[in-house]
Amino acid sequence: MAIDVTTSAQREVMTAGIAPPERPATLAAVAAPGKANLFRSLVATRTFMALCSFALFVCLWHLVATWVGNRVLLPSPVQVAGALYQLGVEGEIFEHALVSTTRLAISLAVAVALAIPLGFAMGLSDRLNAYLDPFIELLRPISGIAWIPLALFIFGVGDALPVFIMVYVAFFPLLLNTVAGVRSVDRKLLNAARTMGVKPAPMLMHVLVPAALPMVMVGFRLAFAGAWSAIIAAELIGSPNGLGFAIEWYRELLMSPKVYAFILVIGVVGYLCDLLLRALQRVLTPWIEGTELA
After folding, report:
1. 129-144 tens-digit pLDDT
2. Residue 182 sits in a domain of what CATH number?
3. What is the pLDDT of residue 206?
4. CA angle 277, 92, 71 (to 5 degrees)
5. Number of domains in the chain
6. For the whole model, what pTM was predicted?
7. Mean per-residue pLDDT for 154-167?
8. Which domain holds residue 135?
9. Is residue 38 scored above 90 in pLDDT?
10. Is residue 188 included in any domain, yes or no?
């Protein structure tokens, strides 16, 4: 015989047609949606997506290397990782990377010293721009690599040749973006500054430079990308050290895992430098965050 354990209060509620109050949700039921949202937010992050793309690339690389079956032609990721570890322990990879990044820093400094003042002058003076623009547009399409044979004859093997090639490659995007940044400055800002009696030097520092800085930073990032690509080609031929030299040296020795290790280092160093430039851009121009220039 079943025993009715329903209380009198519950019977009154059921008789009145009112649903009884729900029991409090358990801790697991409350935590489940939170965990699901956390997982979805993690999947949506750029870091997670980047890691997934890298993992997919490594898997495809391993499959292709297994299918090719030629260690000299295409070593596996494990072999390249072993070569990278060996080069890191010996310190060779850091030595060549330091040489290449030092040349890059010198080249970008020279390109900035030449291109940015000239860019501001061309942006402010239509006459100067009319004189120099045809000459610049004549030289700009010529690849920096095309100058390597002549530069090798002039500078010889050493630091001067890669630095010259990188300065040449970095100069044009930095110059043209500076000119575009100066010409994009709102003329109302300049007129307002003149109305308030602001002299040319303060106007340059407090009006023109901040307004043109976003485009200048875009040009600087483009200059870095072009210079970093050009240094490898220049070091392949005209340098006794550096990442490009190491690639050519181990290629001649048929040590493909070390060749791929140095190629990987080139990509990683370039990626890290670009992240630093993006961070610098956010610090110097926080007002463009979220725009197409960011």
Report:
1. 889 989 999 998 888 8
2. 1.10.3720.10
3. 76
4. 100
5. 1
6. 0.74
7. 87
8. 80-288
9. no
10. yes
Block residue for tokens 């791929």: 260
Distance CA 11, CA 73 (A): 83
For tokens 């009112």, name the residue.
18
Confidence of residue 110 (pLDDT cuts 50, 70, 90): very high
What is d(CA 268, CA 15) in angstroms, rounded to the nearest whole number? 73
Asked whether residue 130 is domain-assigned, the answer is: yes
Residue 64 covered by a domain: no
Residue reference for tokens 């501001």:
120
- Reported as a pLDDT band with limits 50, 70 and 90, residue 26 is low
DSSP 294: -
**Count of CB atoms within 10 A of residue 138's CB?**
9
Q: What would the mean pLDDT of 84-111 be, rounded to a whole number?
A: 91
DSSP character string of 106-159: HHHHHHHHHHHHHHHHHHH-HHHHHHHHHHHHHHTTS-GGGGHHHHHHHH-SSS
Asked if residue 261 belongs to a domain, the reply is yes
Distance from the first to the final alpha carbon of the chain: 77
